[in-house]
Amino acid sequence: MYENRKRKHYTTTSTTGTTASHPLSRNMQPPPTTATTSKKTLTLTPSRLKDLLIILSFLIIIYLLFSSPRPQLSLTPRTTPSTTYLTTRRHIVFSIASSSTSFIHRQPYIRLWYNPTTTRAFAFLDREVVDPTGNNNRSVIDPTLPPVIISKDTSSFPYTFKGGLKSAIRVARVVKEVVELNEPDVDWFVFGDDDTVFFVENLVTVLSKYDHNGWFYVGSNSESYSQNVKNSFEMGFGGGGFAISYSLAKVLARVLDSCLVRYAHLYGSDARIFSCLAELGVGLSHEPGFHQVSFDYLLCW
Question: Which pTM value belongs to this model?
Fold first, then answer.
């Protein structure tokens, strides 16, 4: 009996002496001395990135809406400038296409609008005017009319329009020849025929809407539908006259000769000018005050 109790006592003692294996010993241990801190990590998923981009875009749009000045809406046609430029009669040079045979008979038309003291103009003829009576000593040109300039020879240029007049090339080159006169203080070159009647003050008002430093080709199509169909609704007809700004005329004069060679198949001078300006990327600025009527076509109806 003694030995059994002793053996049990030993077993109990050995059990209580082994603190590491006793369940209560684990609960009574002091907390570890090493401090642990928990950190939360934010994972940027594709959906969150999409939300951030949407919010950022929305904020940028709000900023632009309230920080940028609002554009002023205008109902003015695109071809009508909003600024008035200082253009007077003396800033315009008129170039009149005529011939030695028609100039004498068309002088009354020119006198209707030309004033030698306030208007600059030149009449371009194919040759010297000859007195129809045969008296070469008598002057047949009124000194109050525009000075006459004899056009340069254009016989080397091709012209292939069947039944047309090759003088169209000479008339088209008036643009180049008037620019090469190097007239001072020019804003606009205006071109017309010897039977074109200009209302100069009205013309000044119209051209004052355009900046002569820009490239402008101002005129109007024909009042004859058949003429527009045959030529173009976007061409400035020479019979009603058309205007070219100074800066554009300078550029056109440099390329005109080579351009005329490419358009030998066209009929008139105004069609050649229209085509050469189209190559420069310049379209017609329509002004209804330029009137052109072909009575030949009207009589056919």
Answer: 0.67
